[in-house]
Design a protein that fits this description.
This protein has 18 helices and 12 strands. It has 480 residues and is α+β, with helices and mostly antiparallel strands. The strands form 4 sheets. The protein has a 4-stranded mixed sheet with strand order 2-3-8-5, with helices on both faces. α2 packs across α3 and α14 packs parallel to α18. The protein is globular and about 65 Å long. The chain binds protoporphyrin IX containing FE. Protoporphyrin IX containing FE binds next to α14 and α18.
């Protein structure tokens, strides 16, 4: 288990696929990467003939459909504009662009997350929004508790939480799976980050932390949040009602931190908060309360909805592709290739529905992408979702075919749901462990089907791609 997880945590280095695999292919190479300023004339990629407002609206309403249409009309590299931002976003679905963004020196390609609508929520001290030396320092502090071997320690808790969830299901139940998965991933994250195991007692700081976090997260699921998100574009601080709700949530974070500071270090557990409180940087400094708060909120936000929706999407696809579901079920319940099928199914789920559809870097130099040359300070992004649907990389791209990845490591630059380089998702090993255990538990103990055979539309919420109806399923049969 440990070896398997460590392998997923470090980026894969194997070539994307054996040549014989008819379900995997290659893209013709392009010229891409940093270039000497002034060495070539600027040429911006084309943009959809829509106002920035309409582009943002259409992207938010149907990211995959909008970006696919744009690529079909304009080619694999496009310019995308959003209201309230002067910066142009250049989106490329070519894997060589991903490789260049992930391997160029970090100072030349700082992450654009610092400017995302997450910034006012996670605060100025978060790993998500830091760049340069501050980012490296935070990554060094946070890496140990998210390393594959450390994650192996949580597998028992993850399994218990997953089994408890499925225990409550009955044949005939109908529900949006994303909601159930959020309950699971919130418990896992609370246990891994704060050491809160099971139900915290009423009146405790841990209980209020869990409830306030839940409340905040539930607000972000309402349609009105889309307006709030657009309003916060380019802003650095929370405003209006968001600020009021955040103040309440922050109070509970600070209360947990204050109580934990009272406990002698020797009695601390191995949860992330304890590890962060004990950690010092190169100059021997501990993290301040504000730094701890920003880091903890970031981890809860980054790790909760992403993993839950990734699982919900995988089931949304599985119940509509009975052959894939049947093969997985047979493998999990019968033969000895269960682990391989589980892994391949997760890889295929994250290919067709990467919950973070774009990752961007604000280039600090002129940048070439194939026939285009874009100026310094442009946000150049990897268009993960349309790259994952390129027919040259993934023949039959819209089908759900886990067998593409059976016994095959996904390509480092052709399968990038966790981004890459020095900003690659810090929680990838945890997210993979959760998905493996939860998927296996559900497939082993239940037969699910769709509530409506129509595929669920994808919408963009809080920087993640979520199924419009939350991945509605019906429990056909429950096994004990
Ligand atoms: C299926 C689940 C998840 C997906 C698809 C996902 C995806 C991503 C992506 C695309 C990035 C940006 C990478 C880049 O810019 O190159 C990222 C960053 C990050 N993720 Fe995840 N993530 C998931 C789960 C988690 C979990 C469980 C945690 C931790 C609790 C987590 C913590 C982080 C952090 C801290 C970063 C920032 C890393 C940095 O900037 O150095 N993620 N994630």
């Amino acid at each position: 288990m440990i070896a398997a997880m460590a392998a997923t945590e470090t980026p894969a280095t194997a070539p994307s696929a054996p040549a014989a695999n008819p379900l995997l292919g290659e893209a013709p190479p392009i010229e891409v990467g940093p270039i000497e300023p002034g060495s070539a004339q600027y040429r911006m990629p084309p943009s959809m003939e829509l106002s920035p407002f309409r582009q943002a609206l259409q992207f938010g309403a149907r990211p995959l459909a909008f970006l696919t249409k744009a690529n079909r009309q304009l080619g694999e590299t496009i310019t995308f504009r959003v209201p309230g931002r002067d910066t142009a976003f250049v989106l490329s679905s070519h894997p060589d662009n991903a490789k260049a963004l992930f391997t160029t020196k970090a100072e030349l390609v700082p992450s654009a997350t610092a400017e995302s609508p997450l910034r006012p929520i996670v605060g100025p001290n978060s790993i998500l929004t830091a760049n340069g030396a501050r980012h490296m320092r935070q990554r060094k502090l946070l890496l140990p508790p998210f390393h594959g071997e450390a994650i192996a320690e949580y597998t028992r808790q993850i399994r218990e939480v997953a089994e408890r969830e499925v225990d409550t299901w009955r044949a005939g139940d109908e529900f949006p799976l994303a909601k159930r998965m959020q309950a699971v991933t919130l418990q896992v994250i609370m246990s891994g980050i704060f050491g809160i195991d099971g139900e915290p007692a009423p009146g405790t700081a841990e209980r209020s932390l869990r409830d306030e976090t839940r409340f905040f997260l539930s607000l972000s699921e309402r349609p009105i949040w889309r307006v709030v998100e657009l309003y916060h574009q380019g802003k650095m601080e929370p405003h209006g009602p968001v600020k009021a709700v955040m103040d309440r949530m922050d109070k509970s974070f600070y209360r947990v931190i204050a109580e934990r500071r009272e406990v002698p270090a020797a009695e601390h557990g191995n949860d992330v908060l304890s590890i962060l409180m004990a950690a010092t940087d190169d100059e021997g400094r501990h993290l301040s309360d504000e730094e701890l708060r920003d880091e903890l909120v970031s981890l809860v936000l980054a790790g909760h909805e992403t993993t839950a929706n990734s699982l919900a999407w995988t089931f949304e696809r599985l119940v509509r592709f009975p052959e894939a579901y049947g093969s997985l079920r047979d493998a999990v319940r019968g033969d000895d290739r269960g682990d391989e099928w589980v892994e391949a199914t997760i890889h295929e789920g994250m290919r067709v529905r990467p919950v973070i559809p774009l990752v961007g870097r604000r280039v600090q130099t002129d940048w070439r992408v194939g026939e285009y040359v874009v100026p310094v300070d442009t946000i150049v992004s990897s268009n993960i979702i349309t790259m994952h649907h390129r027919p040259d990389l993934y023949p039959r791209p819209y089908d759900f075919l886990p067998q593409r990845f059976l016994g095959v490591k996904p390509g480092t630059y052709t399968w990038i749901p966790f981004g890459g380089g020095t900003r690659r998702c810090l929680g990838a090993a945890l997210a993979m462990a959760e998905q493996r255990i939860v998927l296996e538990t559900i497939v082993r103990r239940s037969d699910l089907t769709y509530a409506d055979p129509e595929p669920e539309r994808e919408i963009h919420r809080n920087v993640t791609l979520v199924p419009k109806l939350g991945g509605r399923v019906v429990v056909k049969r429950k096994l004990d």
